[in-house]
Amino acid sequence: MNQLFEFIFQSSYDGIYVADKDGNGLMVNEAYTRITGVKPEELLNKNIRDLVNEGIISESVTLMVLDKKRTHTIIQRVKEKEVLVTGNPVFDENGEILYVVTNVRDISELNQLKLELQKTKALSNQYLYEIEEFKKKESVQMMMDGVVAHSKEIMDVIHLAQKVARVDSTVLIHGESGVGKEVIVNLIHKYSDRAQAPLIKVNCAAIPQHLLESELFGYEKGAFTGADSRGKPGLFEQADGGTIFLDEIGDMPLDLQAKLLRVLQEFEIRRVGGRKNIKIDVRVISATHKNLEMMVQNGQFRQDLFYRLNIVPIKIPPLRERKADIAPLAYYFLNKMNKRYGFNRRFHPEVIYMMEHYDWPGNIREMENLIERLVVTVDHEEIQVSDLPFSLLNQDVRKPISLKSMVEEFERKIIRDYLAKYKTTRKTAKILGISQSALVKKMHRIGLK
Length: 449
Hints:
It is built from 19 helices and 16 strands. By secondary structure, the chain is an alpha/beta fold. Strand 11 (about 270) and strand 12 (about 280) form a beta hairpin. The chain is rod-shaped, with a radius of gyration of 36 Å. GO terms for molecular function: ATP binding; DNA binding. This is HTH-type transcriptional regulatory protein TyrR.
């Protein structure tokens, strides 16, 4: 019988600790050590009061049972680990306590799950709040003349574009394909004194090189075989009084670069086959995704032309370097496509998280095309992570990431954005509903300075 009792005692998954009527440890099973990390020799033949004084346990349910003479359950800390303990009295025939049997259960995992659930709920609520805020702000953001402006990086670009719009200096816009160079050109033209005159856009890479000169400068009648018998004004003449945008200027052939340089110096053009110069009044904006300085060094682009074009350089950062614009852009394109096709699609919050952790090699153009594809192809109202294409799902964002890291990253984003808006920790803390000291501590913890 004793062997059976010992087997049952040691087989229990929960920890068991037995003390006598004076609080001295008599028995403890292996599960108690597994759960709490406290070894048997630290408990046996020692009084429970000493264990409390030594800090091994935070408080004693055994002493509560001895005092009240009834069952007690408390949450106890044993060597910094939180456990649920229940003390049960064992009485003799006279109703006096002989022993107290304490059952110990590990609740740290349960607490962790509870905490993670609370954080997940808070994160989802914050995403839903941001969604509503983005919807409210959309009309303000988008009325920046077609520019979704949320990040500091793109706001700096807009500020510079509005500043140079008031003068006629040549502007060279640098940026990867799809970052929105043409949108900035539209902005500059709209805020300029030439806004009521034409804005002519030319993609130098899309026109065959042997036709580019006649397209830009026009031609006289009979200038070449197949030419219009009346001649034709070029795009520079058509832009007279306004603005001409030379996109992909890095693809312009060297011989034509020399003629463009003359236009910028003399503000006059000569048609192909013509004998007289024609005065023009044109503001020139150019753009490229190429490294023109490197092309100059390699003899592929004229240095003098580069200096003429690059009087005011504007660098548009790629989408991966301005994460704060991703969510506003996504909701803008979603609303745009919903209106275009008569749908009422919406994003699951995790879709935005995935988008914010994708590199977007095709930049804004890639995002717009992706969202249009999702809107017209999914069979349900809410666009899910599973609807995203493999190329996006296959990024590093799919690597395991702890909920703690996700929450900290989200906190960093919110605090960084609010600090940029309200400038001081005092104002930011007030908006966030916490004390300034709590905000500073949190910033230190999540690596914000």
